[in-house]
Amino acid sequence: MRLRNIPGSEEKILAHPYAFQTDGAVPGEYKGLWNRNVFKTTKKLYVEIGMGKGQFITQMAMLHPEINYIGIEKYSSVLVRALDKFDREPLENLRFLRMDAEDILEFFDQGEISGIYLNFSDPWPKDRHAKRRLTSLPFLKRYERVLEHGGELQFKTDNRPLFDFSLKELDKAGWKLLDFTYDLHKDGPAPGNVMTEYEEKFFKLGNPICRFRAVSL
Ligand code: SAM
User: What is the spatial distance between Cα 58 and Cα 137, in angstroms, rounded to a whole number?
Assistant: First the structure.
């Protein structure tokens, strides 16, 4: 994701009733309370970590009004693009959280999340940066805590080395692989799949898209 500083993005997030940010948040302010205090419903909660400009999570929220969604993004200049889209077409079951994935345990309670989407996460190709990959063991351990029993992690990428690394990390962490493919769209756009911005771009370039779905045991 090319980062361009967008002036006023932090202020827009701070003032927006559907966006939350972790800087300055009181510890425990949202943890365990997303459904009760923020959505004011008891629907299942799904999150996308590293949502970018929010195409995927916005479309998922439109398709599934019976589910609550939170789009998580580290950078305000990126998150604000999703908010602009949201303002043109607001959705009651969608919120945005500016947060570093590393802090997920401070903002979500044990078993609070029913599913996590990781789409085209940054590959961090150097070995010494492996722990920063969002599918590395330390992150899987965090996801295990916040996911409900049987809650799913879904990962899509066109980066085969990152995908192979992620499969090994799942194994190390003792997760159960539900299914995986090295070429999700080999027979044309996969039915029922919602494409992310990066996915659309790489699909048009003819890059095979890998996907797995897994649950922690
Ligand atoms: N998911 C989108 C898609 O598929 O089109 C965007 C993919 S983009 C390559 C990766 C996104 O993850 C970027 O917007 C980046 O800022 C965000 N990101 C990277 N590390 C993150 C972290 N530790 N916590 C939250 N977001 C992160």
Answer: 28
